[in-house]
């Protein structure tokens, strides 16, 4: 494809006089882009429209998906699918079985499934569950090492027979293999790699209560909180609770070991009553000074903000660690009500933004 054809695809039909027309696959790409982005109301508001070229019409979602998978590279396909389900809310992408069979599982599709699963019949829901399983499996594998590393013991200098890359003894390995150094190649041939052991931390039982805002804008946080809770589950010295809330409070702890089942039960949308959720979390605490309550929300309170501040203050005064974790947008930038967050910080809460791995590190430090 020439540079002029690329500019024509970017600028649309009004640029044809300068760039020339399109033919073949380029015209079909233009039609596919028009099917999706031509519905953008901002274009008509500015008097601009991406009128497609003379290629074959792309009108059905399933046909459009087939086209983009044939015509675009993987990175572009992922962006087009994400815009279809998140920017333009084309729910057919996740409620039509023919479409679900063609689309590749990814976090954007998972968020769309969570928002629209109430529209699905049982057969489509079963297919959607496979998408959830695929994405969750990938997220768990990605986070498991990060989370569990935070709870690993410190390295000792005692030799170990367990060959783990995290425990590789660099100095010991060099010392043991120095006689195999090859000066002409400036290379050390390693025959006997050395590893060290780790000391096990002896910790008292701690509680971690994750309170997750499940309003529509919090889809990513619900997903990552569910997966993080599954990774934390069963760690030595730790008892994990997972609670989802909007105006109602739902304790999902019984499903923590199965994040797929947990996510399929979550209902995104509705108002927000953080005060009610925190009060429920406080009722779960057995030993205040060995407990962490983490509230993951955008902190736009729809309930009683005075009750929320009072409950958080009471938790902090009894020695409980309260984390107010801001929602993160797609670029991992915090998006939350800073005024209410400041009031919570003033009564002793830790306020900020943490990835699941950073949350695990915080909890691990408290367990030392």
Structural account:
The radius of gyration is 26 Å and the shape is globular. A hairpin with a 5-residue loop joins β9 and β10 (about 335). Strands 5, 6, 7, 8, 9, 10 and 11 form a seven-stranded mixed sheet that branches. The protein has a two-stranded antiparallel ribbon with strand order 1-4. A two-stranded antiparallel sheet has the order 2-3. Helices cover about 50% and strands about 15% of the residues. The chain folds into three domains: about 5-135, no CATH class; about 155-200, no CATH class; about 205-365, Rossmann fold. The longest helix is centred in the middle third of the chain and has 29 residues, at about 120-150. It starts with a helix and ends with a helix. It has helices at about 5-10, 15-20, 25-35, 40-45, 60-70, 75-85, 90-95, 95-100, 105-115, 120-150, 170-175, 220-230, 260-265, 275-285, 305-315, 340-345, 355-365; strands spanning about 155-160, 180, 185-190, 195-200, 205-215, 240-245, 250, 290-295, 320-330, 335, 350. It is α/β, with parallel strands linked by helices and about 375 residues long.
Protein topology:
Layout (H helix, E strand, L loop, with lengths): L2 H9 L4 H4 L4 H14 L3 H5 L15 H11 L2 H14 L4 H4 L1 H6 L4 H10 L5 H29 L4 E5 L10 H7 L4 E2 L4 E2 L7 E3 L7 E8 L5 H14 L5 E8 L3 E3 L7 H7 L8 H11 L6 E7 L7 H13 L3 E8 L5 E2 L2 H9 L3 E3 L3 H12 L1
Parallel strand pairs: 5-6, 5-8, 8-9, 9-11
Antiparallel strand pairs: 1-4, 2-3, 6-7, 9-10
Helix pairs in contact: 3-5, 6-9, 9-10, 10-12, 10-13, 10-17, 14-15
